[in-house]
Amino acid sequence: MTDFKAQELPPASETSSSSTQATITVAVVGCGRWGKNLARNFHHLGALKAICDLEPETLKAQKKLFPEVNTTAEFHSLLVDPNLTAVVISTPSQTHFKLAKAAILAGKHVYVEKPIATTALETKELFELATQHERILMVGHLLLYHPAVNRLKQLIDEGYLGEIRYIQSDRLNFNPYRQDKSVLWDLAPHDLAMVCYLLGQEPISVVSAHGHRTSADGLIDVAHIELAFSGGVGGHIHSSWIHPSKQVKLIVRGTERIAMMDDTLESGKLQIFSKDDDRQAIKEFPEYLAIEPLKLECQHFINAIRDNRPPKTDGPNGYTVVRVLEEAEKLLETIPLSEAISEHSS
């Protein structure tokens, strides 16, 4: 493993609050489109102590929302704060490893948005460091905290759908920001984590991966991954940055019933389809708790620290997703830049 020098930092015992303390405090690092949602939820839970961002206007806006919360552009100041329990990282994915590693070495518990890192080796190193320093390491695989997803998993585990034969997850949207190195690393972690969770297993292999580069930046902005699971179960993940209308849909095919989850709906996100004895179509709407998944995820992180127990989405969970993404990326790297891209493409 690489050697990270942190001589300027005090020992971990001097920089972190005890996990058994009554008050757990967190700092959100990166308060952009998603980080601001993390800040809102941790503030609602009474745990938000600081916000760190490089943009002065972002800090100004967050200070207006949360006057009592400290704002800073200096990440190092968080690491040496003895009253800060944990760091929540919501920055571009290529920075996750460096920031998370520094926080763990400073004695902080860490929640890092997906993907936890951009290589399996980095992910393994973070998990080993967190174990060595007895710190909680959690990755933001949000859908594993989604009430509708957990209701679906309950139905699958109970055998209500029959034997699972196929699972497909589509996550399509228009994204002009493109901070990740491809759509694969931006969107597919959600679906990979969810599919593995629902099936209760890791894929045996990446059968195939293909995609398209349709924009002038040359990044892969449409990707398809075919997965093989034990028991003959097939999986498909479709990710896109170029769809003008948002589509977030999951299909689970069982021998008895088919489940569909449409996360763009306000209600009735989870639907079950089957046929009666007369071959008439039946549609069911299983009930689930109407609670914001991110609120549940943030509360789970606080509980994991307080109870000193591994979170549902821990280091090994993050490792599985990154390992599969790496395998798929190797197949995607052979894709040439499309000749159809013109100067005015965006």
Number of helices: 10
Measured distance between first and last alpha carbons: 39 Å
CATH topology of the largest domain: Dihydrodipicolinate Reductase, domain 2
Total of domains: 2
DSSP strand content:
15-25%
What is the strand tally? 14
| Secondary-structure element pattern, one letter each | HEHEHEHEHEHEHEHEEEEEEEHH
Strand order of the largest sheet: 8-9-10-7-11-12-13-14
**Major sheet:** 8 strands, mixed
Structural class of the secondary structure composition?
Answer: alpha/beta
> Using only CA atoms, what is the Rg?
21 Å
Shape label: globular
Structure description:
- With 346 residues, the protein is an alpha/beta fold.
- The protein folds into 2 domains: 12-135, 3-Layer(aba) Sandwich (Rossmann fold); 144-293 and 325-332, Dihydrodipicolinate Reductase, domain 2.
- The protein contains 10 helices and 14 strands.
- It has helices at residues 12-15, 35-44, 56-65, 75-79, 96-105, 120-132, 147-157, 183-199, 293-307, 315-332, and strands at residues 26-29, 48-52, 70-72, 86-89, 109-113, 137-140, 164-174, 205-212, 222-228, 234-240, 242-254, 258-262, 270-275, 281-284.
- The chain has an 8-stranded mixed beta sheet with strand order 8-9-10-7-11-12-13-14, covered by helices on one side.
- Helix 7 (147-157) packs across helix 8 and helix 8 (183-199) crosses helix 10.
- It is globular.
- It starts with 11 loop residues before the first helix and ends in a 14-residue tail after the last helix.
